[in-house]
């Protein structure tokens, strides 16, 4: 699909752009992690809302949480930069990413489903972009509402009740292991 290639080319251009400032590249990274995946995640969470495909929706939760952490890290790093790009430059990068993602979702989701269609998905991408702008400490661009109520509490659903299902939380290395498992020895049998 040409729209997938356009997304990949956009991301690779920013990674390899020697003329771009570090701040611009961090914003582009945040856009890839925060905008380029959000529509796909929303469409799979739409399935979760209907109780469909629990294995896929569980893996989607883990992947979306991981991408969210990457985006949060990029925003945190950006806030600590001394030499940041202007708000206008950041808007240009974000708007460009939004247009590419909207084109992708228009081609990837050409049908109207109950509670989800191309127009709502485009609005959702704009909503996500506005959230990203706020995280970067800039003003919203699109000023739209979240059209998908099921996406409001996604980040809150990550906490798992031990007795309900398998835990999918990140854990600190070594928290669940005994001290013997954390020792280094040179007596391996290989």
UniProtKB/TrEMBL annotation:
Subcellular location: Cytoplasm
Record InterPro entries: Ferritin-like_SF, RNR-like, RNR_small, RNR_small_fam
GO MF, one example: ribonucleoside-diphosphate reductase activity, thioredoxin disulfide as acceptor
Protein family according to the UniProt entry: Belongs to the ribonucleoside diphosphate reductase small chain family.
Name of the protein described by the UniProt record: Ribonucleoside-diphosphate reductase subunit M2
Keyword Oxidoreductase listed: yes
Species: Microtus ochrogaster
Keywords from the UniProt entry: Cytoplasm, Deoxyribonucleotide synthesis, Iron, Membrane, Metal-binding, Oxidoreductase, Phosphoprotein, Transmembrane, Transmembrane helix
GO cellular component: cytosol
Coiled-coil blocks: none
